[in-house]
Amino acid sequence: MDSLCSIPAFYSGKSVFITGATGFLGKSLIEKLLRSCPDIKEIFLLMRPKKDMNIEERLRKLLTNALFDTLRREQPHCFDKLIPIKGDIAIEDLGLSDADRNILIQKTSVIFHIAANVRFDITLKMSVLQNVKTTRDICILGEHMKNLVALVHVSTVYSQLDKQVIDEIVYPAEVDWKKMIQVVETLDEQLLEVFKSKYMGCMPNSYIFSKKLAEQVIVDYSESLPCVILRPSIVTATLSEPVKGWMDNFNGPVALVIGIAKGLLRIMYADINIYIDIIPADTFSKSTIVASWKCGVRKRNMTINFPLVYNCTMSHDRCPTNKDIVNLYRNCKHKNPFGNLLWYPQVYFTKNLLFYNLLFILFQVIPFWFIDELLRLSGRQPRLMALQRKIFINNYLLAHFVLNNWDIRNERAISLSDEIPNDQQEFGYRTVLSKGIDVPYIENSITGAKIYLLNERMDHLDAAKSQLNRMYWIDIIAKASFVIFFIWIIYKNTV
Prior knowledge:
This protein is an alpha/beta fold. Helix content is 50%, strand content 11%. The chain contains 19 helices and 13 strands. Strands 3-2-1-4-5-7-11 form a 7-stranded parallel β-sheet, with helices on both faces. The chain has a two-stranded parallel sheet with strand order 6-13. A two-stranded parallel ribbon has the order 8-10. Helix 2 (24-36) links the parallel strand 1 (15-19) and strand 2. Helix 6 (124-143) crosses helix 7, helix 6 (124-143) runs parallel beside helix 10 and helix 13 packs across helix 18 (439-453). The termini are far apart.
């Protein structure tokens, strides 16, 4: 391939527009673009101001993240290419001013639409407006961009979970996204919630439903725009770039591990043998950049119909199960324990809902209610029962995903990596998607959770190990006391 087809050369002199820049995926993508495409002209970042922080201050805070440490050392001036644009996906036409809109129209060559409201418990109205209508507004904006060569829409592989086999194709729509926007804009929000199940069908929540509709928006606008649909599975900690184990949210299996490691999560309503479809954040950033590059090349050659669809997940037989992750944590918890434990780390899985509710009361509600009462008596703020309520609700919200498996095909995503020029293999990711991850990755992810999410210092491991040992004996004593009390009750009632 000639130099024009290399990925850094493709991005040389180009302006990029990213929504969702302050999120987990957005940060990882920004870092990779700046580090590996040094001649990129500028990156426009859609950002909304907060009550106590304008967009310039938010950008400065974002760049203090440990993810950008390597860039700060090696390319300190690259951050000048980041240009915050005031906007909000919750506002009509992205909340853009006329001046900013014109700048984006005149300069943008590549759009990465990552922004979405990813909460599982949001209302139908909010999910449609922020995830479907916003996607439409992005496409309308893209239609005015004369230099646009790629519009990459980040969906989710679970947007198609009503199919047992999820292939890398566009599926026909059951619901008209245009009419759905009209419905949510017309009807009262409470009335919409009453009829939500009618619209959503078998979809487990409004987020998944809205992401499915958003794909149809992209399909319709692909007649005039060079579009790509990326369907990642659960995006987890970085594999290696720019550091191992970096993360900045509690999504996916990391929440499970932290809950177990802290002693907060002891009962899980899930199938322990279910596969967890994951993809490291840096692997997904690479696939995003490669997909946009390939889309731009194909637009120039006009050799394929849009949208291009890629399922960014590991091969099914290479995904870890819940059992794998729990066993890996069990094997390394004495080597790298978490601090400030609430109980000794251990967890039990059950697929029986009635049994789960009973065990949850016995092993999570009662013990942590007792601890909260001790905190209250000592004059401190009780907080554990509030956490238990969140755990209980979240387990129900996730139940559909931790009790079922899908056959997700990723051949096109894997083969896309094979098209990377030989001298650009830093963008390659085939090994991860086809062969899966190894034990060191899980261990690095656990360490990353300690460092980047819980702000625990690795030089305090001795104290953490001592506490883990104490909690072990407290757990043994508590269990023995419960058994003795139960035997005593039976004895008293039989004498």
